[in-house]
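We emphasize that the prediction below concerns an isolated chain of 402 residues; any contacts that depend on oligomerization or on bound cofactors are therefore not represented. The input was used exactly as deposited, without trimming of termini.
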Amino acid sequence: MTLSRGDHFDTVVVGLGAMGSACLLQLARRGQRVLGLDRYDPPHSWGSSHGGTRLTRCAVGEGEAYVPLVTRSHEIWRELEAETGAELLTQCGMLIVDGASSAASYHGKGDFLGRTVAAAERFAIPHEVLDAAGVMRRFPQLRLCGDEVAYFEPGGGYIRPEACVEAQLSLARRHGAAVRTGTRVARIERDDGGVCVVTEDGDRFHAAEAVLAAGAWSAGFAGALAPHLSVTRQVFHWFEPQDPAAFAPDRFPPFIWVHGDGPEDNFYGFPILPGEEGMKVGTEQHLLTTPDPDQLRREIAASEAEALFRDHLQGRLPGLLPRALHSIACIYTNTPDGDFLITRAPENDRVLLVSACSGHGFKHSAGLGEAVAQLLTTSAAPSLTMFDAVRLDAAADALVPP
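Result of the prediction step, given as a token string:
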């Protein structure tokens, strides 16, 4: 689609990462005249949708409301694989390990493993609950203390984020979507019953609605909702294995391991993918925020990998050497309760904010893109009210003394 100044669309999608690319494709599939804008050229390494892999499973400890979204996402990725020939979803199993005495929360939710098991039982998701000995018999690469409990989901695994974004943008273009990259949006204005998206180059694109899926940059357009969004720097490291074959996907699953009561007493990892040399491992921090995502520190000190190995890997993954082969930084955009924020902007109800994903969004993104497209195009759309800003406004009000 050729663009010109003053073009009018049904929907303009601002941001084309995980959520934006999914929304763009699903809107284009439904015959909308749709435009996608991104300040970079996705897939890229400046936001939240990169790093080669993301965890996925259908039983979601963050809340049972997410289960239909991730289940549908798995179906969509299989559909996209058939259409594009890309490899998007690998279901090699997924393991969650938790110390039996751990009271720590993960992604803002306490009893994360118990909530995961409950979701699996409610939705009849195939799974196993293992004790420490059972985990180590099946996966001798892990060394547990003995009091842990684990959840294993054979249908879980990992997704390739860059490939997913690329496949969705390619198919969106095939269905008639216009895409302009390297374009910064300056503001989104009200416009005669709709919106006008104004770029820093002065181009103006009119539409009935806008989807704001700009991730870490969403706060700049979110108005009164901006205080609910915080940006944090996260780091992944690829550690050298003694025996790479022992950590191949057919012998070793992606995992989450909660090993203490502190907010950062956890880490996650992936098998070594074909063509890679190291095993990807990361942890999460939510205490240090980055007010301006453009100022996110991309440089990674050797001490950061050393600390992760010392605090998390040493003694638990004896097959890994303490040397990180390489490392990358990533951005999370978080809400106070760790749940998504999908809501109409208070200053303009023609703008739908689709953020923040709080560090666990990618596995839901394809299904969520479909749900957003249904919301904007049909009266029979699924409800997304559980992600509305009302819950956060109410929580913030409760903190203010009467």
